[in-house]
Amino acid sequence: MATEDKSQTATEEVKVDLFEDDDEFEEFEINEEWDDKEEGTEGQQWEDDWDDDDVTDDFSLQLKRELESQPDKK
Amino acid sequence: MAYLSMGEAHRRVAEYLHRLSDAVSSQDVNSLNHLFSVSSNSPFLLSFADALNLLQDTNRLVKLADKSSQLGEIPLHLLTCFQNYRLGNLVDSYHAFEKFANAFIQEFRNWESAWALEALYVIAYELRILAERADRELASSGKSPEKLKGAGSFLMKVFGVLAGKGPKRVGALYVTCQLFKIYFKLGTVHLCRSVIRSIETARIFDFEEFPRRDKVTYMYYTGRLEVLNENFSAADRKLSYALEHCNPLRENNIRMILKYLIPVKLSIGILPSDWLLQRHNLVEYRDVVLALRRGDLRLLRQAVQEHEDRFLRSGVYLVLEKLELQVYQRLIKKIYIIQKQKDPSKAHQVKLEVIVKALKWLQLDMDVDEVECIISNLIYKDLIKGYFAHKSKVAVLSKQDPFPKLTYKNAV
């Protein structure tokens, strides 16, 4: 990223428009207070144990049919 | 503008100056915040600015209200700033505000207690906002927009004022967050580095001591930087912190955190639940998730392409592109399981042409050599355990744990 320094001056004029940060974090109020989220009130957020051996879903069944459609040529 | 008499105009200006000197002498930071919030357009400030423009000569006005001389040049620059702001001269307004800010930090430096810290927050915020508007004015008249960059340099100076041993140091993170917003907007994110180093290594700072609001913002931005640098494990830690501690009512902020955290989690095969995607309206990730579950390469490519603009702009495109390997892994795993059901003794031998066939079914035209290359890559990245029988064009999978779970080590 150090190379950006050099190119910076040349491209500066366009940058303000090009690099508009769409994801600028909204400003919190100076005295904004809140409670931490209570555990358990939210739905499940993440799944890390989904990669099972189940091949009964539509996609897998179609895949299976496809693979079996012709006997493998040796 | 309704008719305004000279007398009334004088009264309004005097009232502002009176409140200003009162707020300082009584250390009333709330009043000060209000008086400095140029861009808030509060009715009081607007009518004050109208009065200024009727009377025009700010210099004389300040002298008339000489009581405020204890504030040095602060009133003069503030008045000039409001005057220009109201007239829509945003560049001049910014200049005056920067001079005011400079005069203010001279005073602020001399105050031992941190009573005026919040007023400094307001100044840092206003400086950024006014600079953005000034730049828009400059750009529209064909001049080079440079005020936001200038505001960045100025805020570095403010950071220096706060980075000491005293009680004012807890304000350093707020200024840091304003700097991040400037650098991200200007596309000069490498400038974040020095201030991050200071926050994370200087002994005067204890991260836990900073206000929660600033800690959350800081973690959001540093998390985004880690995504850009492909440090996914650090990105996960920081963005998860931001998510966990963000005000739950700040829906937009939570959504923004997730926009970056989701691709990071996906890179090690952790999927966002459907509930999460729906709740925060992040439907652009729906098909990506489905593609991972299925092992559907075609769907992955479609899903990434469909929202290409969005993903490119937020800088997560490359992260998502790299999910392809995971999808291949999943597809080959499915083939392996299907074979296993048919004939367990031969399941661990996966013929390349079977994979070619499956890909063809997904309308992806690849030959045996290309598939061989992909499998080598999967083995190299530790997504598949096994070896390659080159002659017979067969991938021989390890009998134990042929499809290891991902970690951040092989996610890149």
UniProtKB/TrEMBL annotation, chain A:
It holds the Pfam family DSS1_SEM1. Residues 28-55 are annotated as: Disordered. GO terms for cellular component: nucleus; proteasome regulatory particle, lid subcomplex. Its main location: nucleus. One of its GO terms (biological process) is mRNA export from nucleus. Coiled coil: none annotated. InterPro entries: DSS1_SEM1 (IPR007834). The keyword Nucleus applies. It comes from the Eukaryota. Keywords: Nucleus, Proteasome. The keyword Nucleus applies. It is found in: Nucleus. Component of the 26S proteasome, a multiprotein complex involved in the ATP-dependent degradation of ubiquitinated proteins. Belongs to the DSS1/SEM1 family. PANTHER family: 26 PROTEASOME COMPLEX SUBUNIT DSS1, PROTEIN DELETION OF SUV3 SUPPRESSOR 1(I)-RELATED. This is 26S proteasome complex subunit SEM1. It comes from Kalanchoe fedtschenkoi (Lavender scallops).
Automatic annotation (TrEMBL), chain B:
It comes from the Eukaryota. It holds the Pfam family PCI. One of its GO terms (cellular component) is transcription export complex 2. PROSITE patterns: PCI. Residues 216-402 form the PCI domain. One of its GO terms (molecular function) is double-stranded DNA binding. Gene3D superfamilies: Winged helix-like DNA-binding domain superfamily/Winged helix DNA-binding domain. GO terms for biological process: poly(A)+ mRNA export from nucleus; post-transcriptional tethering of RNA polymerase II gene DNA at nuclear periphery; transcription elongation by RNA polymerase II. InterPro entries: Csn12-like, PCI_dom, WH-like_DNA-bd_sf. This is PCI domain-containing protein. The lineage of its organism: Eukaryota, Viridiplantae, Streptophyta, Embryophyta, Tracheophyta.
